[in-house]
Amino acid sequence: MIFDSKIIYNKKISENFYHLKLKIKKNLVPLPGQFVNILIDDSCDIFLRRPFSIFNYENEKLEIVYKVIGKATKILSSKKKGETINFLGFLGNSYLDFISNNDNTSNDIILLGGGTGIASLNFLCQWLKNKKYKFTLLYGAKTKKEIFFLKNFKKFNTIFTTDDGSYGNKGFITHYLEKIVNNNSLIFACGPEPMLLTIKNLELKNKIYASFESYMGCGFGVCLSCVIKVKTDNNGFEYKRVCKEGPVFDLNSVILEKD
Ligand SMILES: Cc1cc2nc3c(=O)[nH]c(=O)nc-3n(C[C@H](O)[C@H](O)[C@H](O)COP(=O)(O)OP(=O)(O)OC[C@H]3O[C@@H](n4cnc5c(N)ncnc54)[C@H](O)[C@@H]3O)c2cc1C
Ligand code: FES
User: Fold this and answer.
1) Angle at the Cα of 150 (from 53 to 82), degrees rounded to 5?
2) Is the CB of 122 under 6 A from ligand 1?
């Protein structure tokens, strides 16, 4: 469905990161892991919508956290309170599709968020906390400047890492995953593909579900620009649409580029 919603605020929160809050219609309730496809500008330059995960939702207010990396996100960062944002939503599957009622009795849910991937996991953290699940969040960033909402993430059981050691532990979150994982751990991840590949290469026996950030065209299953390769039972593969069957997939079933 297509919606128009007013910007409550759109502010800079950290180096190149912005926090967008929108007032949305009643009865529109997203699930953790889903995303919206925003029409940034209808110029022929950026006519394609851009996908963003839902960072949080509460009381008819939808939050997105985004990094300015190119033309569309630069324009988005210039939008002001009171302006209207047009988006398609809520799209894709949810992390919740992979959580059973039994999981809240265990202490073993591990979430790994690298770079902008942390935006998608925050909503899941809020959901797990509200439902009294126990979990550990591994939050990785390049430097301290790229860590946002420190206070918010400290509310959870969070291990911070930075590549340069400027905040938290020095190194990659995947290293800490190896330290805390056990046979019963259920793992969720969202981050750049090299991070997902590293997790996959650990060859853990655990169930691991990862959210993918492919390039998208339509966002609703028609253009096929977002497809990834997923293994089939007969040792072949088929293409799946990140926007429709995903963005969350069983990581071990996905064939990554450098596999
Ligand atoms: C399901 C989904 C959820 C997402 N959630 C978020 C989010 O919560 N916060 C956030 O900041 N971003 C998120 N993204 C990524 C976001 O959509 C892109 O950063 C945005 O579209 C870039 O637009 P642009 O015009 O500013 O940059 P462009 O000019 O399109 O790209 C600038 C540079 O970034 C690279 N790039 C752009 N998009 C991607 C991508 N998807 N994967 C890898 N490299 C890319 C390009 O190759 C180029 O080098 C998500 C993507 C998907 C598919
Ligand atoms: S973005 Fe068009 S099919 Fe996925």
Assistant:
1) 50
2) no
Separation of alpha carbons 177 and 246, rounded Å: 23
Kindly give the residue spans of alpha helices, DSSP state H, lying in 18-98. Answer: 71-77
Residue-number span of the structural domain to which 174 is assigned: 95-255
| Residue 243 CA, closest ligand 2 atom number | 4
Among 220, 228, 240, the mutation site with the greatest number of ligand 2 atoms within 8 A of its Cβ is: 220
Answer yes or no: do 210 and 237 share one domain.
Answer: yes
Say whether both 76 and 163 belong to one domain.
Answer: no
Residue 105 CB contacts under 8 Å (≥ 6 apart), including other chains: none
The answer to whether the pTM exceeds 0.90 is: yes
- Mark whether 66 and 189 lie in a shared domain: no
CATH number (domain holding residue 55): 2.40.30.10
Does 44 share its domain with 60?
Answer: yes
Amino acid at 189: A
pLDDT of the chain along its 259 residues, tens only?
898 999 999 999 988 999 999 999 888 899 999 999 999 987 767 789 999 999 999 999 999 999 999 999 999 999 999 999 999 999 999 999 999 766 666 668 999 999 899 999 999 999 999 999 999 999 999 999 999 999 999 999 999 999 999 999 999 999 999 999 999 899 999 999 999 999 999 999 999 999 999 999 999 999 999 999 999 999 899 999 999 999 999 999 999 987 7
